[in-house]
Amino acid sequence: GQQVMQIPQYQHVQEGEDFTTYCNSSTTLSNIQWYKQRPGGHPVFLIQLVKSGEVKKQKRLTFQFGEAKKNSSLHITATQTTDVGTYFCAESNFGNEKLTFGTGTRLTIIP
Amino acid sequence: DGGITQSPKYLFRKEGQNVTLSCEQNLNHDAMYWYRQDPGQGLRLIYYSQIVNDFQKGDIAEGYSVSREKKESFPLTVTSAQKNPTAFYLCASSIDRSGQYNEQFFGPGTRLTVL
Fold first, then answer.
1. pLDDT 10s digits, A70-95
2. Could you tell me which residues come within 8 angstroms of residue A68 by beta carbon, excluding any fewer than 6 positions away?
3. CA distance A27 to A74
4. A59 touches chain B (CB under 8 A)
5. CB B100 within 8 A of CB A92
6. N or C: which terminal CB in chain B sees fewer CB atoms within 10 Å?
7. CA A5, chain centre distance (Å)
8. Contact assessment for residue A81 and residue A109, using Cβ atoms and an 8 Å cutoff
């Protein structure tokens, strides 16, 4: 099956530090989505990237899609306690109607 | 309020018993999905349905069954054939059949414990 590598698995940062999680695929993707799951909660959609080299921003969050459409990253600037949770990428290939989720990066904030 | 409901939130069953998890949506979405999440792991697709009266196996369908008799409902049965059923089960929906281009909306989940 499709392999979705997401790194790191865990990240502990001091409040105010930056955070980045990476998603890598062995195949070219049609699109990639990012989700956030708060502790004890359910995944919530953040954004979708479709175009090669696309960059999108949501306040302190910056999402990138690689030029070859095989990797993506989520960068959070100046983390806050509200950023705590697990961030998942979700990928799909051309002709495949399913999403494949990465294993997630769990972010904890040290106040 | 529009959304996805899953019930119950917590469910306990004895080993060897079948159990059915409920998922209802009033978003008028065509596609619905069931995922399983184990501690510290990502979401793995069990079954999905893109239209009423049709559904497809996901990556880990063995030991599970589903039905899609109504657009708004997609119940999941965890059978006694599932070797390790204790997990957090998430139901999701998306607006149409092109699931990969539409965001998925998730329900609150059901945490199943088999004793």
1. 999 999 999 999 999 999 999 876 66
2. A28, A52
3. 19
4. no
5. yes
6. N
7. 11
8. yes
